[in-house]
What does this fold into?
Amino acid sequence: MKIVLQNLTKIFPSRSKKSNEEVVAVNNFNFEIPDGKLIGLLGPSGCGKSTTLYMISGLQKPSSGKIFFGNDDVTELSTENRGIGLVFQNYALYPHLTVKQNILFPLQNLKGKDKLDKDTMLDRAYEAAKLVQIEQLLDRKPSELSGGQQQRVAIARALVKMPRVLLLDEPLSNLDARLRLQTREEIRRIQKETGITTVFVTHDQEEAMSISDMIVVMKTGIVQQIGKPQDVYDDPANLFVAKFLGTPPINVFSGHVKDGRLFIGGDAVMDIQTVKDQEVIVGIRPEGFLLDENGPLKCKPVNVEVMGRDVSIVSTHDASVNPLVRSIVNADNKIDITSEYVRYAIKPHKIFIFNKETEERIYFEVK
Ligand code: ADP
Ligand code: MG
It folds into this structure.
């Protein structure tokens, strides 16, 4: 089921009595979510992810704009009639019910022509439990389960009605690091097995990048960029997106372009074409540095952190916006941190420049 968001906007009235300023939680969101894909809705806290999800689910009504499931306009449809499965951060299981009863619950509430007989309900509950691999836990109470198992029950409960659309709001936030990793793979597997169009909300870029077919990066209610995770990482539309994706994060410098050369501080790092003279913001991905004794970028080494196959060289540069510059190079390189400078050449496809005022990307060609 494809989902179309058309000029979707949500404005909340002011919460404070003093100011009348309303909050534009979601601002003119346009996107066609392809059928059967997993979309990662990504951005910092407060950027409008949950509000977007709640509008898709029908829990909140848009201030303006429309939502379509397939060709059906569902904007005015109630949550119950949209055919969605919802999973939240806090699993919201009923503590006094067993796992089986929790999963059965949505089916027992079906009315009229949707009503199912008892055996069908049990079959469906068992199938859903099997899909999330908790079929051996059906008689336990939620308190007798780990966090990861509880979240699986919540997912089974969302799947049991065979929804057209699965909506997950930060479903892994309450899990510890290892379980988070494991459960996100599980969600991906379940999504692929069922083929249900899924929207997965998270503030964790790595989580979104690792399991999504496409990511949507939001900031203050406004969509910044939509694309395949790798494409957005490789080709960020603006400084915000460049900074939001990647661990360790992108290194940011103040720089300028003069006579076709890009400078970081006093270092002429690259000859570039088609950019007029101006001050710019420069971003270099940590993997974009090449150790080169004649390289143009001169940093002062501080420390080398071993990361197994790779090492991270921590250094400083006067034009760096952050206190430290962090590069990642192969561990085979010999690095002498007592030397005055570590010198780098920069991989051209790992360096981006941005307009100093608008922070929008400036595209260039390497000479
Ligand atoms: P996210 O899920 O990305 O953290 P939300 O969608 O929850 O962000 O919130 C987006 C913005 O809308 C925030 O500024 C938040 O304070 C505001 N907001 C969310 N819900 C309400 C509400 N019911 N009333 C007023 N403001 C709200
Ligand atoms: Mg939220």
Observations:
- The mean pLDDT is 94.
- Helices lie at 49-57, 99-108, 118-131, 147-159, 177-194, 205-211, 229-234, 239-244.
- The longest strand covers residues 23-33.
- Residues 12, 15, 23, 25, 43, 45-51 surround adenosine-5'-diphosphate (ligand 1) (CB under 6 Å).
